């Protein structure tokens, strides 16, 4: 598809347009040496722009069928807003069939690669650093959810979409799946898109999207940051594979401190770490209306509001969600595609048709997105 012929491109404004030649030069002809990541819709390269700025250049693959819509969404969402905890869009390229986004380059990659990744990072994630990252992401989400009109639901909050600058300030990235929701609407029903392990049950099963779905994803991320491990790891003993289930179990036994990342070697504020884990449980409660809004989460994380233990109820657990039967729609064979090189076991379902006894629709299509840097 030639995106230049698409009428929607006319809606792109307030964004610098780069030529393909400029970006090819910036990345030394998109050399593999400059490749810094791979995302759901293409590759990300480090490049030096003509004005001397270092940029992250996200090239959408030409064969991506979904790419145009997500590309335009990302431009129109992120070009209008600015916040310390959101990535900054420099511009884009819509020349011929090329679709390229140009972002500020963030030196320390994503949380998925540095904190949770199997390759050992030289970054020291002290308790203070983790606390700062949790609060920063919460502030970025609170801004999207509560300071904008229409407000924005990100739909794909996860470790690989939290990038870190040179000071380890977190930046929420990848707005390709974002939804703008007018203030007069309580929720939208939409095709489910996101990453298994971070998906709120009501969204995964019924396609009901509200801010509370992002809040659930944030709760999962919060527990990952404190524990230093991915939300799902099938290499662990069966009772420890699902992080949220393990968190609830330890909470009931009053042993939450046992979940804190052992790489901290005991050098952390135990009371604060347990508080953060409780906030993670508040955010992932099975009933969406019980989850706090992000502005409240910021107050809880920063100590401006106390956590009320009596308000913590059982989370919507991925293990329950994974019990959904994968079966075909009528007169069709089930199809499960697994993507290659996915960064965590939680994402290896790829695309599948899921049905459940408590959903009224015949089938819910779930798209688990491929992990990437931006």
From TrEMBL:
Residue ranges annotated for the Protein kinase domain, each copy included: 30-312
Transmembrane domains' residue ranges: none
Pfam families reported in the protein's UniProt record: Pkinase
Kinase as UniProt keyword: yes
Molecular function GO labels: ATP binding; protein serine/threonine kinase activity
Low complexity biased stretches: 352-361
Top-level taxon of the source organism: Eukaryota
Stretches for region Disordered: 328-361
Xref: InterPro entries: CR_Ser/Thr_kinase (IPR052059), Kinase-like_dom_sf (IPR011009), Prot_kinase_dom (IPR000719), Protein_kinase_ATP_BS (IPR017441), Ser/Thr_kinase_AS (IPR008271)
UniProt key word Membrane: no
Sites where the protein binds ATP: 58
Keywords carried by this UniProt record: ATP-binding, Kinase, Nucleotide-binding, Serine/threonine-protein kinase, Transferase
Family membership noted in the UniProt record: Belongs to the protein kinase superfamily.
Protein name as catalogued: Protein kinase domain-containing protein
């Amino acid at each position: 598809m030639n995106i230049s012929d698409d009428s929607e491109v006319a809606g792109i404004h307030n964004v610098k347009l780069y030529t393909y030649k400029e970006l090819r030069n910036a990345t030394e002809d998109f050399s593999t040496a400059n490749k810094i990541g791979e995302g759901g819709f293409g590759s990300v390269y480090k490049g030096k722009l003509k004005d001397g700025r270092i940029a992250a250049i996200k090239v959408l693959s030409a064969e991506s069928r979904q790419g145009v819509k997500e590309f335009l969404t990302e431009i129109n969402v992120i070009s209008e807003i600015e916040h310390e905890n959101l990535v900054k869009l420099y511009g884009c390229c819509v020349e011929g069939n090329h679709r390229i986004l140009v972002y500020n380059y963030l030196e320390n990659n994503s949380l998925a690669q540095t904190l949770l990744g199997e390759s050992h990072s030289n970054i020291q994630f002290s308790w203070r650093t983790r606390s700062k990252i949790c609060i920063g992401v919460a502030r970025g989400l609170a801004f999207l959810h509560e300071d904008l009109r229409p407000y924005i639901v990100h739909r794909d909050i996860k470790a690989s979409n939290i990038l870190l600058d040179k000071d380890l300030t977190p930046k929420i990235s990848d707005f390709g799946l974002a939804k703008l929701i007018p203030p007069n609407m309580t929720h939208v029903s939409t095709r489910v898109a996101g990453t298994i392990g971070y998906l709120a049950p009501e969204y995964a099963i019924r396609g009901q999207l509200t801010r509370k779905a992002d809040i659930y994803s944030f709760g999962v991320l919060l527990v990952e940051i404190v524990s230093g491990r991915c939300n799902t790891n099938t290499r662990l003993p069966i009772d420890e594979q699902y992080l949220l289930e393990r968190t609830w179990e330890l909470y009931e036994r009053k042993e939450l401190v046992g979940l804190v990342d052992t790489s901290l070697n005991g050098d952390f504020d135990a009371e604060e770490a347990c508080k953060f884990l409780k906030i993670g449980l508040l955010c992932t409660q099975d009933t969406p209306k019980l989850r706090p809004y992000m502005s409240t989460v910021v107050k809880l994380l920063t100590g401006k509001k106390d956590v009320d233990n009596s308000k913590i109820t059982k989370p919507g657990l991925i293990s329950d969600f994974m019990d959904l039967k994968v079966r075909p729609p009528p007169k069709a064979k089930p199809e499960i595609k697994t993507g290659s090189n996915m960064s965590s076991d939680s994402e290896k379902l790829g695309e599948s048709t899921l049905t459940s006894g408590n959903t009224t629709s015949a089938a819910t299509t779930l798209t688990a997105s491929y992990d990437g840097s931006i």
